[in-house]
Amino acid sequence: MKSFYKITMKKLGCYFCMIILTITIQASKKNYIQKRQSADKKKSFSGKCVSVFSDVFDFHKNLISPDTLKVAAITIPSFFIARFADDSVHECFYNRLNHKNINQMPHWSHEVARVITGPTITFLALQGFLSKRSRDFYTAYAMVLGFPFLWFTNEFIKKIKIDCSLRPWNQYFSSKKRASGGFPSGHTAKIAYLATLYGLEYGLKAAIPLGLIAMGIGGTFIASNRHYTSQIIAGFGAGIVYGIAAHKLVHLKESRYLDLTMNIAFNQQSGPTLNLYWKF
Description:
mainly alpha, elongated, two-stranded antiparallel sheet, 8% strand, two-stranded antiparallel ribbon, Vanadium-containing Chloroperoxidase, domain 1, single chain
């Protein structure tokens, strides 16, 4: 009985020490992060500019990684397969003989798909920059930092005169010559960029609504003869690649702060143990 009592008291004493140690470490971690964030805010203007240029370099470096190459390995074959089906899908929404759009969705749906990207970006940026959580801030920061480069790359590719850049036939355009600038779909790329970045950072609670918006935009533009299916797929691929690069930048920024994980476990033979994992 005495032996059992001693063992029990020993276990309780170990757990109590672990709890005190955990509270102490968490308090130290919070204080450390606050000091680092305060130091960042006090940086000079030139120091902040250097930091931004460094982040731009890291962002573009992350565009080529095992994860982005996997996306490219899926997107490129899917794009060429969709190219073979583009005309068949297009015939469902366009009558060539009369030069008329057919089976059209309500006009308001096209307008919503066209303008929804801007308010979504603005909302996410404000939510992140006004938040006190470093993760929210850096996610918004990476999103805003990478967005102009996604837009510029998309617009640059659109200027290249290639066959896959021609838009579908549409009654609102010439019946003799197709308009150019359809590859890749810019709106789809932007919303896929947001869905990827925020989905990787916050999981399904962000990925599902943003993913549904992305699919809604893609489907609407196909049905309204604004883009071919292959151009929508190309937009998704571009947005996902840039979203992964932005996600890696967020983790790079957060890794500058102390990251500590603690795990308390009990083993019948060795007794209570405390596992610590940390990085700077």
